[in-house]
Write a structure and sequence with these properties.
The protein contains 25 helices and 2 strands. It is mainly alpha-helical and 530 residues long.
Length: 530
């Protein structure tokens, strides 16, 4: 054979590099032929494009017969005892083929398990090809575990390069996350994952073009994904610090978090987080920023360096074994993360980690108090049921004392509905009695009728000033047509709650107007608020 004779004469006549390139080209050709034959068999068996997830879609698999018999060539290599010298070219071809096929088969596929497809591809394509070259005995002894490790390593490489997209698609991408967890335990590539994910977050998330709500959503998904991969939170502590620091410098972070907690429409995961059945008071002592700055991934993950060096020294060439080593059971064990003492504390809840960005619960409660004031001042129905429910949930997480002022604000609105009803009933009863006593007097009848109609046009939200945020207190001249009703309401309140009196903040009110046009009547609202 040409290749065999070329190799024999190369010891004295030719430099090694052209020989290696020739051998690599030969092995690459035979491996591509094996891949094409495998894909053709799949298509012939299924005739169904639905099985394309198990096939290398972007690999050119036009099947043609080779001008030589690969099996015969392999046999000649064995007869000449040449195959021990082919470790380097075989390793190079395998690494390239495995990485190429892994990208083709699993890239962008997060919702279905894909690791089993890679294992089947290895069993149907790589294993028969490699066993034909090196022999069954040498394959089982020297190559089998190295090949298994190379598949897992390539799987990790591709998934780690897509980590941001996987996090953004969570929980739909949960199958990909769970498979990555398994592969990482076998390869020990946790530090590589940390470095790559921090870089991806920095480039694709932590920039002015991303709004704060999106950053928070991705951060919450990051917490959940990394806790599947590493329940000890070692990876999370190493990755989370840059995101926390960036959110800390955004002016609207607190408002976005509070909105997500309390608004059903925009809340998402945080809205559900507040409603967890096993909710506990926030613990800001775990996952503090200052503590996270001290995290050293090399210290938190324990690796047996002696065993790792022993694995790397088994091959003839240490450089080629750095990526594709003989992954025996001890090396897999040593690659498994072993958290040290700092991570023996209980896991911090997602809400606690978000609040821990600023290290203060009061900051979030004060922001909610401002948002609550806006909602209550525009609540024309005085319906407080939803706000009471939210307050009860917030009390479980932030504590009774933190939301005490908010409780009084909600109670003010609830009491306002009752007081408005009482005053309206009193005024209506008095006006009715006057109307009945003067029912025979036509002059007084019209005036009394007008009084009865105007008695319920004013509804007042009565606020306990010291418990509310600072409110706008500018003067606003009220239209003369409703001034008598306001004064009447104020007098009745003074009589009902003596010695208390009302001070009206007209700029915060809402006026309902009936606009009479040429041939129609349109109702609209003009809102005046702080």
């Amino acid at each position: 054979m040409l290749i065999a004779s070329l190799l024999i004469t190369s010891d004295t006549m030719s430099p090694p590099i052209p020989i290696d390139e020739t051998i690599q080209t030969f092995f690459r050709t035979t491996l591509n032929h094996q891949r094409a034959k495998w894909r053709k068999s799949l298509l012939d068996d299924s005739h169904d494009s639905a099985n394309s997830s198990d096939i290398e879609n972007s690999f050119d698999t036009s099947f043609t017969n080779l001008p030589f018999d690969p099996e015969e060539t392999y046999a000649n290599f064995k007869n000449c005892h040449l195959h021990p010298h082919f470790t380097t070219p075989i390793t190079s071809v395998l690494q390239q083929a495995i990485m190429e096929s892994t990208k083709n088969m699993i890239s962008g596929e997060y919702e279905e398990p894909m690791l089993s497809s890679m294992v089947n591809w290895k069993k149907d394509v790589i294993t028969p090809w490699l066993r034909s070259i090196v022999g069954r005995s040498s394959f089982n002894k020297e190559w089998k575990k190295r090949l298994d490790f190379a598949i897992q390593q390539a799987f990790c490489e591709v998934r780690i390069s897509e980590m941001f997209s996987i996090i953004a698609d969570y929980p739909d991408s949960k199958p990909a996350v769970e498979e990555l967890k398994i592969a990482l335990v076998r390869t020990g590539m946790h530090k590589h994952l940390t470095i790559q994910l921090k870089s991806q977050l920095q480039k694709r998330l932590l920039h002015p073009g991303a709004n704060t709500a999106q950053i928070i959503d991705v951060y919450v998904s990051t917490i959940k994904v990394l806790r599947i991969i590493d329940p000890t939170d070692v990876l999370l502590e190493a990755v989370a610090n840059p995101v926390k620091q960036y959110l800390q410098n955004r002016k609207d972070t607190v408002r976005c978090i509070v909105t997500s907690l309390t608004d059903e429409k925009s809340g998402g995961d945080l809205y559900q987080e507040l409603r967890m059945q096993d909710a506990k008071p926030l613990d800001l002592g775990v996952g503090d920023i200052n503590e996270m700055e001290k995290v050293d991934l090399n210290e938190l993950y324990a690796f047996d360096e002696d065993e790792e060096d022993e694995v790397l020294s088994e091959g003839e060439d240490e450089n080629e074994n750095e990526k594709m080593n003989d992954d025996d059971e001890s090396s897999v064990e040593s690659a498994t993360p072993t958290p040290t003492q700092p991570n023996q504390t209980p896991k911090t809840e997602v809400l606690s980690m978000l609040v821990g960005i600023y290290g203060s619960k009061e900051l979030f409660v004060n922001e909610y108090r401002l948002m609550l004031a806006d909602k209550l001042l525009t609540n024309l129905s005085f319906d407080t049921d939803q706000e009471v429910q939210k307050l009860e949930l917030l009390k479980l997480r932030f504590g009774d004392s933190c939301v005490h002022f908010c409780e009084i604000m909600v109670k003010d609105l609830y009491d306002s509905r009752r007081i408005n009803k009482t005053i309206h009933e009193t005024v209506n009863a008095r006006n009715k009695n006057k109307n009945d006593s003067n029912k025979n007097d036509n002059d007084n009848d019209v005036g009394e009728d007008s009084t009865v109609q105007n008695s319920n046009i004013v509804n007042v939200a009565i606020l306990s000033d010291i418990f509310w945020p600072a409110l706008q207190k500018q003067e606003l001249k009220v239209h003369p047509s409703i001034q008598p009703s306001i004064q009447e309401f104020s007098d009745e309140y003074a009589a009902l709650k003596n010695p208390r009196k009302l001070v009206f903040l007209s700029t915060l009110g809402v006026v309902k107007l009936d606009l009479e046009l040429t041939d129609e009547v349109d109702e609209t609202k003009v809102v005046k608020r702080r």
